[in-house]
Amino acid sequence: MKQFINAKETLVTEAIDGTLRTAGGRLARLDGYPHIKVVVRTDWDRSKVAVISGGGSGHEPSHAGFVGRGMLTAAVCGEVFASPSVDAVLAGILAVTGKAGCLLIVKNYTGDRLNFGLAAERARAQGLKVEMVIVDDDIALPDLPQPRGVAGTLFVHKIAGALAEQGVELERVAEAARRIIKGAVSIGMSLDTCTIPGSPKEERIPAGKAELGLGIHGEPGVEQVAFSSAREAMQMVVERLEPAMGTGPHVALLNNLGSSTPLEMSVLAEALCQSRIGQQIRMLIGPAPMMTSLDMRGFSVSLLPLTEADQAALVAPVAPWAWPGCSSVGEIRVEPLPDGLTPIQAIPSENTETRVFLEHCCTILIDAEQDLNALDAKSGDGDTGSTLATAARALIKAMDKLPLADQTQLYRAIGLELSQTMGGSSGVLLAIFFAAAGDASASGMGPVDALKAGLERIQQVGGAQPGDRTMIDALAPALDALASGLPAAASAARNGADKTATITRAKAGRASYLAEDSLSGHNDPGAEAVARLFEALSG
């Protein structure tokens, strides 16, 4: 798999240096590359308790991304998914620990426990006060004697870091950390495995499946489950978390495991808030990538019972750019539309013949959704079918509100509905088309001439003409032939749509941005949609 790296041997050191160059001088690294990779604060006051964490790389922005005022004092970085050495951990301890001592926050993996544990012993032998806590928040394997430490570690980083910044003594910081660890629970789900640099990608999750309860090092999950939607995925995660969470208000941490898009993460945030534990979630951290697993396309949810003291620590300001903040969860605030924009709704009226005709048109476009998407994918972003089908479904839903017995008002009402429900430039153009047809009808034009007037208006506004490889190549000849009947219009639309396959230089629309070889040999999807509509109506 292609990745933006130079060599796996220098991947981590180059990434750390890239982080430091953009940190505005607030971070530095200890000398000792490549074996000792420790990121430290440059503004550190040794009179306070130092908070140190770390582990294998590949979880960015953890751990170096959370070094800074209010969170970690230092991060000790290993190679990808490999614990740092004892010497590296000890170097980090010695570099930042004063008389107040330090707290080591360690995720529950054997290598981390051993290396951090031995480094702590050596530091104590040199007279330093060192406390170590082990994070074991993963509940994927409830009977496991040593649960893994995953994204719930961020609760500990933030709260312990806030207390240390306030000057709280080591014993109290460590006590708070252990209390947070006891209350934190986490579980993750992914649609795909991660890609380890220099190694072939493991393809163990088949299409239509997701992996529930997987770790952050690419280790398999507890089970593979059927995947159908974000809502159902979140429901499965919640079902695992609910028995392990406490009562009362909680803070949730919604973590992107690597390559889930911001759009997907926002959908998952809504699914979490609407889930059966949603009422218990008072605060939310994220959604954001915090404890990732390279490029894993998944998410994890961590929960912690929320006290006033912990809330104050979670919302305390910090310097690290990677901390997304902790925000209150509440109802969606809806403001009224401004004056002049709220549409004037036409008075509904019934006409059975018109209703049946419109519903038939909508069904035709809905049935063509997948075919039109596939056609659009050859020269665009593959959404023409979905855009038209979404508008068609909305129009069917709005049928009882339409003035079906008044042709003039019906044109205008359809244009208004499309302007509200149909996305993209095609939605705007069709809204203009029907609005202009309504105006023409009001001036006394018949149905065909009114539609032609609508076509003329969208040509003026959109700038496209026949031959420019748009839906107009099918719509214009269809309307010209419509006076001779639907079969004639369908034949004209089909000829126009098929001709677009030979037009390799588009002059309007998205296709105008594409190279000739992307257009040759297949119809413009908008023109194809028009042709299919007239063909189905004439049949």
UniProtKB/TrEMBL annotation:
GO molecular function: phosphoenolpyruvate-glycerone phosphotransferase activity
Domain DhaK: 7-323
Domain DhaL: from-to ranges: 352-539
Keyword entries, A-Z: ATP-binding, Kinase, Nucleotide-binding, Transferase
Tree of life domain: Bacteria
EC number from the UniProt entry: 2.7.1.121
Class of enzymatic activity (EC top level): transferase
Protein name: Dihydroxyacetone kinase subunit DhaK
Gene source species: Spiribacter insolitus
